[in-house]
Amino acid sequence: MFFIPEHYRGTVDHILITHGTIQDRIEKLAYDIARDYKDLTIHLMCVLKGGSAFFQDLCNAIRKFHDYSRCTQIPFTFDFIRVKSYEGTQSSGEVTISGVSMEKLKGKHILFVEDLIDTGLTMKKVFEKITAEASPATIRVASLLEKRTERALAIGFKGDYVGFSIPDKFIIGYNMDFNEAYRDMMHIGVINEEGIQKYK
Ligand code: IMP
Ligand code: MG
Fold this sequence. Notes:
By secondary structure, the chain is an alpha/beta fold. It has helices at 19-37, 52-67, 121-134, 150-155, 193-199, and strands spanning 12-17, 42-48, 76-87, 90-98, 109-117, 138-147, 161-166, 171-172, 188-191.
């Protein structure tokens, strides 16, 4: 029922969330965030590369609410960071953060912008590291997706703002990838076996 570009035909099992629904959900997330932070400046930390589409759309939505709010502070500042922890479809559990200097985060209201919380291990480690090394005022995460898995339950990390709770399938599209493929597909979908073989 939805458009899948020719180059991905036959490699997508199904579309899970359409681009339009993503936008509608982001508008509400932005509304919740703008209301919660009121007159504070949020320091957004966009987790590259997967989180960048969500980041752009979230910024635009927060800006829209802020511009009509009569609040006088800057709504947000931001950094782009890289967190390395994933190869193929398995989470390795090892985490390194690059792209930000810890001194600059002191006293800031940090909001991570992440594409997907799977096991929650990446964000758990990032939170521990930032809390220990940067002493921010507050630290939260906005994640577009959160998987319902046993592993996630065991690790126990929960997103503060979550767009959609999804089943434990490998997700692609809207900037999320399988070995760099599918980032350009604008809907969120589930890869099939043909896709895994083609891009592995
Ligand atoms: P976690 O540490 O298990 O929570 O994994 C976090 C990161 O792994 C996410 O930020 C994603 O970038 C990546 N990831 C996890 N599951 C998927 C998936 O289904 N598709 C694409 N990337 C994924
Ligand atoms: Mg990510």
